[in-house]
Amino acid sequence: MSSHLVDRIARMLKDGVAGFMDGLEDGDPVPAGNPALTLIEEMRNALSSLAAERHLAGKRLNALDAQLADIGGKAELAVGADRDDLARAVLGRRHALAEERAGLEASLRKIDAESGRLSQLIEQMKHEAGLGGSLTAAEEAAFRDLQRLAAGRTEQKQGD
Questions:
Q1: Average pLDDT over all residues of the chain
Q2: Which of residues 136 and 122 earns the better pLDDT score?
């Protein structure tokens, strides 16, 4: 996921919090055109996308680890059978898998960084929402939901 979505959310938060807070203080439902509603939906979408990307990258990383473990044994067998051509092919495949693994690890670090930025934005939004007084139960629930998503926790057990 590119950081442009998180940057967009940060800009929306900066621009839209005042109107959002006014609506919450009045007890009015947030109109569809309110930037704060868009902000919350964007945050949920971004967090959901990050969670899905993290899950898929983790699955692929586990599969690569299994392939790398299997390839090590194949290289030894090829050398033991005096099949240098097969050993070279296996080592080339191992190198390609190791490069893919490094790329996935970098992707996971980037996903974690984006999740961290969103967590900070959620905290900022929660802080700004609380400046006008105590948060309502609905506001607390919305922030808990966003924080839960940012932490990568889901209430439903997802199948592989």
A1: 75
A2: 122
